[in-house]
């Protein structure tokens, strides 16, 4: 589900449900330039102590979901801005957070698969 909410509502949500795992995705994607798209998506799972095999499998699924399976070995400087943003979205979803908060998240998204990966689909609400 995609919602557009203001910062006061976010603060209220965090006070009501501090137990929910949250992930922030910013307009600037902060990908690690020395890592491939696959490695960037795997990183949060490896930090969370998931096995390398499980992290790779999940990362490949997520890259496929955002339409970048064929670019998994490319580094950020070899991808467009929209492709880098989709890698950041895949990375944000890696550990299955309950909430993903995006700062102008869709500004650089250049294809439908990225929107679909966020749960937008054809009936998603507009994000701001």
Q: Determine and state the CATH class.
A: Alpha Beta
Name the shape in a single word.
globular
Tell me roughly what share of residues is in helical segments.
Answer: 40-55%
What is the count of helical runs?
Answer: 5
| Side-by-side strand order of the widest sheet | 1-2
How large is the share of residues in beta strands? 5-15%
- Number of separate structural domains: 1
CATH homologous group name = P-loop containing nucleotide triphosphate hydrolases
Largest sheet: 2 strands, parallel
How does CATH name the architecture? Answer: 3-Layer(aba) Sandwich
CATH names the topology as Rossmann fold
Radius of gyration: 14 Å
The residue-averaged pLDDT reads 78
Structural class determined from secondary elements:
mainly alpha
Instruction: Give me the count of strands.
Output: 2
Low-confidence stretches: 122-128
Structure overview:
The protein has 128 residues and is mostly helical. The chain has a single domain, classed as P-loop containing nucleotide triphosphate hydrolases (Rossmann fold, 3-Layer(aba) Sandwich). It has five helices and two strands, in the order H-E-H-H-H-E-H. The chain has helices spanning 7-16, 37-47, 52-65, 81-93, 112-117; strands at residues 22-25, 99-102. It has a two-stranded parallel sheet with strand order 1-2. Helix 3 (52-65) crosses helix 4 (81-93). The longest helix is centred in the middle third of the chain and has 14 residues, at 52-65. The radius of gyration is 14 Å and the shape is globular. The two termini are 14 Å apart. Mean pLDDT is 78; it is low at 122-128.
